[in-house]
Amino acid sequence: MNELNSAEKATILVVDDAPGNLALMHNLLKDDYQVKIANRGEKALQIAASDSPPDLILLDIMMPGMDGYEVCQRLKRDPRTQNIPVIFLTAKSEVGDEKKGLELGAIDYITKPISVPIVMARVKNHLALKAMADFLRDQNDWDSAERLAYTLRGDSGNVSVNGLQQFAEKLEVAIKERHSREGIEARPDAPATQLDNLIAQLDQKPPEASGRMTASFNQEKLKEVCDKLEALLAENDSEAINVLDANAELLEAALPNRSREIDNAIRLFDFEAALAALRAATGTSV
What we know:
Layout: E1 11-15, H1 19-29, E2 34-38, H2 41-48, E3 56-59, H3 68-77, E4 86-90, H4 95-103, E5 108-111, H5 116-137, H6 142-155, H7 164-182, H8 198-201, H9 219-234, H10 239-246, H11 248-254, H12 259-267, H13 271-282
Parallel strand pairs: 1-2, 1-3, 3-4, 4-5
Protein backbone atom coordinates (compact mmCIF):
# COMPACT_ATOMS: atom_id res chain seq x y z
CA MET A 1 0.00 0.00 0.00
CA ASN A 2 1.16 3.52 -0.72
CA GLU A 3 2.28 5.65 2.20
CA LEU A 4 -0.86 7.38 3.46
CA ASN A 5 -1.60 9.21 6.65
CA SER A 6 -3.93 7.63 9.17
CA ALA A 7 -6.92 9.63 7.90
CA GLU A 8 -6.56 7.95 4.49
CA LYS A 9 -5.81 4.40 5.66
CA ALA A 10 -8.57 1.91 6.19
CA THR A 11 -9.32 1.27 9.86
CA ILE A 12 -9.41 -2.23 11.31
CA LEU A 13 -10.81 -2.95 14.77
CA VAL A 14 -9.22 -5.99 16.44
CA VAL A 15 -11.30 -7.48 19.26
CA ASP A 16 -9.62 -10.01 21.58
CA ASP A 17 -9.15 -10.33 25.32
CA ALA A 18 -5.61 -11.77 25.06
CA PRO A 19 -2.83 -9.10 24.97
CA GLY A 20 -0.56 -11.49 23.06
CA ASN A 21 -3.09 -11.86 20.25
CA LEU A 22 -3.66 -8.11 20.13
CA ALA A 23 0.08 -7.49 19.93
CA LEU A 24 0.40 -9.99 17.08
CA MET A 25 -2.35 -8.39 15.02
CA HIS A 26 -1.06 -4.88 15.76
CA ASN A 27 2.36 -5.84 14.41
CA LEU A 28 0.87 -7.48 11.32
CA LEU A 29 -1.48 -4.66 10.38
CA LYS A 30 0.13 -1.43 11.62
CA ASP A 31 2.13 -0.65 8.47
CA ASP A 32 -0.86 -0.79 6.13
CA TYR A 33 -3.84 0.13 8.27
CA GLN A 34 -4.99 2.23 11.18
CA VAL A 35 -5.53 -0.33 13.93
CA LYS A 36 -8.00 0.12 16.77
CA ILE A 37 -8.11 -2.21 19.75
CA ALA A 38 -10.90 -3.54 21.97
CA ASN A 39 -10.15 -6.04 24.73
CA ARG A 40 -13.81 -6.85 25.42
CA GLY A 41 -17.07 -7.08 23.52
CA GLU A 42 -18.75 -4.06 25.07
CA LYS A 43 -15.84 -1.83 24.06
CA ALA A 44 -15.99 -3.17 20.50
CA LEU A 45 -19.64 -2.17 20.19
CA GLN A 46 -18.86 1.29 21.54
CA ILE A 47 -16.07 1.83 18.99
CA ALA A 48 -18.12 0.46 16.11
CA ALA A 49 -21.03 2.82 16.85
CA SER A 50 -18.80 5.88 17.33
CA ASP A 51 -18.38 8.81 14.96
CA SER A 52 -15.23 7.11 13.62
CA PRO A 53 -16.30 3.52 12.98
CA PRO A 54 -13.88 0.90 11.64
CA ASP A 55 -13.96 -0.33 8.06
CA LEU A 56 -13.59 -3.96 9.14
CA ILE A 57 -13.65 -5.92 12.41
CA LEU A 58 -11.47 -8.91 13.30
CA LEU A 59 -13.38 -10.58 16.11
CA ASP A 60 -12.44 -13.33 18.55
CA ILE A 61 -15.23 -15.57 19.81
CA MET A 62 -14.08 -16.78 23.22
CA MET A 63 -14.03 -13.74 25.49
CA PRO A 64 -15.22 -13.27 29.08
CA GLY A 65 -18.57 -11.58 29.45
CA MET A 66 -19.96 -10.88 26.00
CA ASP A 67 -18.56 -13.41 23.53
CA GLY A 68 -17.87 -12.78 19.86
CA TYR A 69 -21.10 -14.37 18.69
CA GLU A 70 -23.14 -11.90 20.70
CA VAL A 71 -20.96 -8.99 19.56
CA CYS A 72 -21.56 -9.95 15.92
CA GLN A 73 -25.27 -10.38 16.49
CA ARG A 74 -25.56 -6.93 18.06
CA LEU A 75 -23.50 -5.33 15.30
CA LYS A 76 -25.78 -6.75 12.65
CA ARG A 77 -28.93 -5.63 14.49
CA ASP A 78 -27.78 -2.01 14.79
CA PRO A 79 -28.38 0.12 11.65
CA ARG A 80 -25.26 2.15 12.54
CA THR A 81 -22.97 -0.87 12.41
CA GLN A 82 -24.72 -3.51 10.30
CA ASN A 83 -22.66 -2.76 7.18
CA ILE A 84 -19.27 -3.15 8.88
CA PRO A 85 -17.80 -6.47 7.69
CA VAL A 86 -16.89 -8.90 10.46
CA ILE A 87 -14.25 -11.62 10.17
CA PHE A 88 -14.13 -14.12 13.00
CA LEU A 89 -10.54 -14.87 14.01
CA THR A 90 -10.79 -17.68 16.52
CA ALA A 91 -9.47 -20.96 17.88
CA LYS A 92 -12.94 -22.52 17.55
CA SER A 93 -12.43 -24.77 14.53
CA GLU A 94 -15.53 -26.99 14.46
CA VAL A 95 -17.74 -26.82 11.39
CA GLY A 96 -20.71 -25.97 13.59
CA ASP A 97 -18.85 -22.99 15.06
CA GLU A 98 -18.06 -21.64 11.60
CA LYS A 99 -21.64 -22.20 10.42
CA LYS A 100 -23.00 -20.29 13.40
CA GLY A 101 -20.61 -17.38 12.84
CA LEU A 102 -21.54 -17.04 9.18
CA GLU A 103 -25.25 -17.33 9.95
CA LEU A 104 -24.91 -14.41 12.36
CA GLY A 105 -23.66 -12.24 9.53
CA ALA A 106 -19.87 -12.57 9.49
CA ILE A 107 -18.32 -12.42 6.02
CA ASP A 108 -15.46 -14.78 6.81
CA TYR A 109 -14.19 -17.20 9.44
CA ILE A 110 -10.46 -17.78 10.03
CA THR A 111 -9.17 -20.29 12.58
CA LYS A 112 -6.06 -20.01 14.74
CA PRO A 113 -3.18 -20.55 14.47
CA ILE A 114 -3.42 -18.15 11.58
CA SER A 115 -1.62 -18.13 8.24
CA VAL A 116 -0.34 -14.57 7.90
CA PRO A 117 -0.55 -14.39 4.07
CA ILE A 118 -4.13 -15.69 4.13
CA VAL A 119 -5.24 -13.25 6.81
CA MET A 120 -3.66 -10.29 5.02
CA ALA A 121 -5.12 -11.29 1.65
CA ARG A 122 -8.62 -11.76 3.04
CA VAL A 123 -8.48 -8.45 4.89
CA LYS A 124 -7.52 -6.64 1.67
CA ASN A 125 -10.19 -8.40 -0.38
CA HIS A 126 -12.99 -7.64 2.07
CA LEU A 127 -11.91 -4.01 2.50
CA ALA A 128 -11.92 -3.53 -1.27
CA LEU A 129 -15.38 -5.09 -1.59
CA LYS A 130 -16.74 -2.98 1.26
CA ALA A 131 -15.34 0.18 -0.31
CA MET A 132 -17.09 -0.60 -3.56
CA ALA A 133 -20.34 -1.42 -1.76
CA ASP A 134 -20.20 1.83 0.22
CA PHE A 135 -19.72 3.85 -2.94
CA LEU A 136 -22.52 2.11 -4.79
CA ARG A 137 -24.79 2.57 -1.77
CA ASP A 138 -24.56 6.34 -2.05
CA GLN A 139 -22.85 7.63 -5.17
CA ASN A 140 -23.34 11.23 -4.03
CA ASP A 141 -21.06 10.76 -1.01
CA TRP A 142 -17.89 12.25 -2.50
CA ASP A 143 -15.93 12.18 0.75
CA SER A 144 -16.34 8.40 0.83
CA ALA A 145 -15.54 8.23 -2.85
CA GLU A 146 -12.24 10.03 -2.35
CA ARG A 147 -11.30 7.69 0.46
CA LEU A 148 -12.35 4.76 -1.69
CA ALA A 149 -10.03 5.87 -4.48
CA TYR A 150 -7.03 5.95 -2.15
CA THR A 151 -7.89 2.52 -0.77
CA LEU A 152 -8.39 0.91 -4.13
CA ARG A 153 -5.33 2.51 -5.66
CA GLY A 154 -3.18 1.00 -2.94
CA ASP A 155 -4.80 -2.42 -2.90
CA SER A 156 -5.92 -3.10 -6.44
CA GLY A 157 -2.69 -4.82 -7.45
CA ASN A 158 -2.91 -7.23 -4.54
CA VAL A 159 -6.51 -8.41 -4.46
CA SER A 160 -8.37 -10.84 -6.64
CA VAL A 161 -11.35 -8.75 -7.69
CA ASN A 162 -11.94 -8.43 -11.45
CA GLY A 163 -11.98 -4.86 -12.71
CA LEU A 164 -10.97 -3.37 -9.35
CA GLN A 165 -7.99 -1.44 -10.67
CA GLN A 166 -9.97 0.01 -13.57
CA PHE A 167 -12.72 1.03 -11.18
CA ALA A 168 -10.19 2.83 -8.97
CA GLU A 169 -8.68 4.70 -11.92
CA LYS A 170 -12.05 5.88 -13.20
CA LEU A 171 -13.07 6.98 -9.73
CA GLU A 172 -9.91 9.04 -9.24
CA VAL A 173 -10.49 10.79 -12.58
CA ALA A 174 -14.04 11.65 -11.54
CA ILE A 175 -12.84 13.07 -8.21
CA LYS A 176 -10.15 15.19 -9.87
CA GLU A 177 -12.71 16.59 -12.30
CA ARG A 178 -15.02 17.49 -9.44
CA HIS A 179 -12.22 19.21 -7.55
CA SER A 180 -11.32 21.22 -10.63
CA ARG A 181 -14.94 22.12 -11.33
CA GLU A 182 -15.85 23.18 -7.79
CA GLY A 183 -12.51 24.50 -6.57
CA ILE A 184 -12.36 21.98 -3.73
CA GLU A 185 -9.11 21.75 -1.86
CA ALA A 186 -7.86 18.85 0.22
CA ARG A 187 -9.12 18.93 3.77
CA PRO A 188 -6.43 19.55 6.42
CA ASP A 189 -5.92 17.00 9.14
CA ALA A 190 -7.84 17.75 12.31
CA PRO A 191 -5.62 19.44 14.91
CA ALA A 192 -4.54 17.41 17.89
CA THR A 193 -6.20 18.05 21.21
CA GLN A 194 -4.26 20.66 23.19
CA LEU A 195 -3.29 20.09 26.83
CA ASP A 196 -3.04 23.73 27.75
CA ASN A 197 -2.20 23.14 31.37
CA LEU A 198 0.28 20.30 30.82
CA ILE A 199 3.55 22.03 31.63
CA ALA A 200 2.13 23.71 34.72
CA GLN A 201 1.25 20.29 36.16
CA LEU A 202 4.65 18.67 35.57
CA ASP A 203 7.33 18.22 38.19
CA GLN A 204 10.04 20.59 36.96
CA LYS A 205 12.77 19.13 39.16
CA PRO A 206 15.51 17.39 37.17
CA PRO A 207 15.91 13.65 37.79
CA GLU A 208 18.82 13.04 40.13
CA ALA A 209 19.89 9.55 39.14
CA SER A 210 19.14 8.65 35.55
CA GLY A 211 21.13 11.40 33.86
CA ARG A 212 18.89 11.00 30.82
CA MET A 213 17.04 14.30 31.22
CA THR A 214 17.76 17.73 32.63
CA ALA A 215 15.60 20.60 33.81
CA SER A 216 15.94 22.09 30.35
CA PHE A 217 14.30 19.16 28.55
CA ASN A 218 12.20 20.11 25.55
CA GLN A 219 8.84 21.04 27.02
CA GLU A 220 7.29 21.55 23.60
CA LYS A 221 8.28 18.03 22.63
CA LEU A 222 6.81 16.65 25.84
CA LYS A 223 3.55 18.47 25.26
CA GLU A 224 3.42 17.23 21.69
CA VAL A 225 3.97 13.63 22.79
CA CYS A 226 1.32 13.78 25.50
CA ASP A 227 -1.17 15.41 23.12
CA LYS A 228 -0.62 12.69 20.56
CA LEU A 229 -0.68 9.86 23.07
CA GLU A 230 -3.92 11.10 24.63
CA ALA A 231 -5.59 11.40 21.23
CA LEU A 232 -4.54 7.90 20.22
CA LEU A 233 -5.64 6.32 23.49
CA ALA A 234 -8.98 8.10 23.31
CA GLU A 235 -9.47 6.59 19.84
CA ASN A 236 -8.29 3.11 20.95
CA ASP A 237 -5.61 3.38 18.27
CA SER A 238 -2.76 0.89 18.60
CA GLU A 239 -0.33 3.48 17.22
CA ALA A 240 -0.11 4.51 20.91
CA ILE A 241 2.36 1.63 21.35
CA ASN A 242 4.73 3.07 18.76
CA VAL A 243 4.51 6.55 20.30
CA LEU A 244 5.24 5.04 23.71
CA ASP A 245 8.27 3.11 22.42
CA ALA A 246 9.69 6.19 20.71
CA ASN A 247 9.31 8.43 23.77
CA ALA A 248 9.66 6.11 26.77
CA GLU A 249 12.63 7.92 28.31
CA LEU A 250 11.00 11.32 27.97
CA LEU A 251 7.80 10.15 29.65
CA GLU A 252 9.70 8.34 32.40
CA ALA A 253 11.71 11.45 33.22
CA ALA A 254 8.84 13.94 33.00
CA LEU A 255 6.09 11.81 34.59
CA PRO A 256 8.00 9.73 37.15
CA ASN A 257 4.99 8.88 39.28
CA ARG A 258 2.81 7.63 36.44
CA SER A 259 5.04 6.52 33.57
CA ARG A 260 5.24 2.87 34.63
CA GLU A 261 1.46 2.68 35.10
CA ILE A 262 0.91 4.21 31.66
CA ASP A 263 3.48 1.92 30.06
CA ASN A 264 2.05 -1.25 31.62
CA ALA A 265 -1.53 -0.39 30.68
CA ILE A 266 -0.67 0.37 27.06
CA ARG A 267 1.32 -2.85 26.64
CA LEU A 268 -1.63 -4.80 28.02
CA PHE A 269 -3.87 -2.96 25.54
CA ASP A 270 -5.94 -1.54 28.39
CA PHE A 271 -6.19 1.83 26.71
CA GLU A 272 -8.90 3.12 29.06
CA ALA A 273 -6.65 2.63 32.09
CA ALA A 274 -3.70 4.14 30.23
CA LEU A 275 -5.72 7.20 29.26
CA ALA A 276 -6.91 7.69 32.83
CA ALA A 277 -3.34 7.45 34.13
CA LEU A 278 -2.05 9.89 31.50
CA ARG A 279 -4.74 12.41 32.28
CA ALA A 280 -4.07 12.07 36.00
CA ALA A 281 -0.37 12.69 35.35
CA THR A 282 -0.94 15.76 33.18
CA GLY A 283 -3.83 17.24 35.13
CA THR A 284 -6.39 16.97 32.34
CA SER A 285 -9.89 15.54 32.48
CA VAL A 286 -12.30 13.86 30.10
